[in-house]
Amino acid sequence: MTGGLEAHLRALIAAEGPISVARFMAEALGHREYGYYRTRDPLGAAGDFITAPEISQIFGELIGAWCATVWQQSGRPDPVNLVELGPGRGTLVADVLRTIGKIAPAFDAAVAVHLVETSPALRAAQASALGARPHWHEAIEDVPQAPTILIANEFFDALPIHQYVRRGRAWHERLVGYDHADAVWRYEVSGAPTEAPLDPPVAEEGDIFETCPAGAAIMRTLAGRLAAHGGGALIIDYGHRASAVGETLQAVRGHKYAPVLEAPGEADLTAHVDFAVLARAAEGVAVFGPITQGAFLEALGIEVRTQALAAAAPDQKRRDDVLSGAARLTDPRQMGSLFKALALIHPQPGHPKLRHSKPAHPNQAPPPGFKASDRHDR
Ligand code: SAH
Fold this sequence. Notes:
This protein is α/β, with parallel strands linked by helices. It has a domain at 52-158 and 213-243 and 253-374: Vaccinia Virus protein VP39 (Rossmann fold, 3-Layer(aba) Sandwich). 36% of the residues lie in helices and 24% in strands. The protein has helices spanning 2-16, 21-30, 36-39, 52-55, 57-73, 91-103, 105-110, 120-130, 213-229, 275-281, 293-299, 302-312, 316-330; strands spanning 19-20, 80-85, 111-116, 135-137, 148-153, 162-167, 170-179, 184-193, 208-211, 231-240, 250-253, 256-258, 268-270, 273-274, 286-292, 339-345. Strands 2, 3, 4, 5, 10, 14, 15 and 16 form an eight-stranded mixed sheet that branches. Strands 1, 6, 7, 8 and 9 form a five-stranded antiparallel sheet that branches. The longest helix has 17 residues, at 57-73. The chain is globular and about 60 Å long. The protein binds S-adenosyl-L-homocysteine. Residues 30, 37, 43, 51, 53-54, 86-88, 92, 116-119, 122, 153-155, 158 line the site of S-adenosyl-L-homocysteine (SAH).
């Protein structure tokens, strides 16, 4: 398999010259035949990395309750799409659906499940977790237009990023080339300054700045859908609040960091999400956060739920797993602070006093887990 992707990339570079980091990342992760996500289930102990829903069922249960409340805040639309971007093994959406089946049967009955997933291997895993209920799509644009509750956990970090290097007063795109003599992939820098409209903060010679136009484009589409049809979205990922210089693209293989260019197609590649850019792209909706994952889960009541599950655990081992899983999600030294939550909410529908107010909808009720003061002002 490795051979296939590497040969494809070498041929691409021979034909077109060095490729952008974004192209490298897109091919390494998503190439139809040899891409990392196309060829395997990368999650879990036997895979390369683990995510919050795989660590603890409480994550999906709290998000299920979040979805049910946002559905109510949105005026209980029926039918409503429950959309997940990049559902992995389907664990999160399975926990969400189990929870809403228990606490919000009317929501459950109104829901059509739509999964945006490009990986055939992971679609198969999702089908075994969820049965025949979901509809699958290649991209968010393919999901039917309707009121929407959308969730995305560790999806945006997998989208291709561009990297630019500061040279004098300009930015030059960083490229990936192939060194035939040493048979290794290597970084190069474009000779000409980029024409991309970059809006980076202060930078020094040699600094690297990353952009993710694919992520911003998805946010624009999502916000447009919410503004047109109503609903809300919850985006959880690791990353930073404010745009900043710095190289964050990383490769992970077998739960360990690996060099980014070492084995394309064999390692997971992700980069920090720039939440400032995502929030700015969400035009026409109310944006809350980002707040830390720890603060978000604590506000949703992770403590109480953890104690209840621990008390019900059949033995000490299971009890310890429940407690350590919850701690891993919320502890600032683990996932509690690097991971962040961002919410988009359709402005309150049909409220006569708010309809023409500017800035739009100042009295928007915050979604669960967020405070009115978490409202993001553009
Ligand atoms: N949300 C899951 C999995 C995260 S891994 C969890 O928390 O466990 C990233 C997921 O996004 C995988 O399901 C991967 O196949 C999917 N993915 C990556 N790039 C994608 C793209 N461009 N379009 C749709 N899905 C994508």
